[in-house]
Structure to design on (290 residues):
């Protein structure tokens, strides 16, 4: 409210997490401020409770239904999984959304979720719910939280002798992911630095030179979000949020995370990638288009 009412900003690039972006979107949309979230994947960021699009709200990332569907399809078709366990933070919009869409897609494809357990953001000991996972011995253990929580869950699962293949979402994408505990696991993501397209390789090179490490998906999507917003302003020919929003709806974007355009709900139609944790590294495994 300070940014909008006092500082008079007309554009917001952010926020990162859906639980912040959803309330921001409600106020920004009411005030005619264009919000472009790089990384908030929950469906409710760009639509209201009646699934009406918020005219001033956009995002640069694909949404949880697509991400959950891609993960479930990969588990069923590529890993041959028939059973899965899912652990989720019920109070986190991002985590809950991913978990629910994975479950629905996995079961629609013929699989069975044999363990569905919740925890809170304050929990650090997952032994009680992991005991249920060990007893059920599912083919896949889906952990859709951010890397900091996944590190704890994965390490504790391995300590308990759980051998299920670990899977997760784009929240795994971090230099701080415990690649020893998650070794052999897979996660959905927005791009791969191994993509040979010139726009990707130029971005990776420049980022590496400046920061000394390859860009993760959050850095990449923030770059894409700013680029897409600037392209909309240029197309509109004026810095009026209403005109820019209208212009953005009709554009094609050749950005780092993939060629895209917006659907009627202001979600970009774009591919996802599957990344594998292997021998201490994150490696490209597959690209899945909408």
């Amino acid at each position: 409210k300070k940014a909008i009412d006092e500082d008079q900003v007309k554009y917001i690039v952010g926020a990162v997490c859906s639980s912040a972006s959803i309330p921001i979107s409600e106020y920004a949309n009411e005030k005619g401020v264009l919000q472009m979230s790089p990384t908030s994947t929950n469906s409710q960021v760009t639509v209201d409770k009646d699934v009406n699009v918020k005219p001033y709200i956009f995002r640069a990332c694909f949404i949880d239904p697509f991400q959950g569907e891609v993960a479930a399809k990969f588990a069923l078709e590529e890993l041959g999984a028939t059973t899965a366990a899912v652990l989720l933070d019920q109070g986190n919009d991002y985590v809950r959304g991913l978990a629910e869409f994975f479950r629905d897609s996995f079961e629609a494809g013929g699989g069975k979720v044999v363990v569905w357990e919740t925890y809170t953001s304050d929990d650090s000991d997952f032994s009680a719910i992991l005991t249920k996972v060990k007893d059920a011995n599912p083919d896949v253990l889906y952990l859709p939280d951010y890397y900091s929580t996944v590190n704890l869950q994965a390490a504790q699962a391995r300590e308990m002798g759980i051998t299920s293949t670990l899977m997760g979402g784009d929240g795994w994408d971090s230099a701080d992911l415990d690649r020893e505990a998650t070794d052999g696991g897979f996660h959905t993501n927005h791009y791969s630095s191994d993509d040979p397209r010139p726009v990707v390789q130029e971005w990776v090179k420049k980022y590496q030179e400046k920061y000394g490490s390859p860009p993760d998906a959050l850095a990449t999507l923030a770059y894409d979000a700013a680029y897409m917003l600037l392209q909309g302003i240029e197309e509109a020919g004026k810095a009026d949020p209403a005109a820019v929003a209208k212009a953005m709806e009709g554009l094609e974007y050749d950005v780092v995370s993939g060629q895209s355009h917006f659907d009627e709900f202001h979600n970009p139609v774009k591919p996802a990638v599957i990344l594998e944790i292997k021998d201490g590294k994150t490696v490209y495994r597959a690209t899945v288009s909408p």
The mean pLDDT is 95. The longest strand covers residues 112-119. DSSP finds nine helices and 13 strands in the chain.
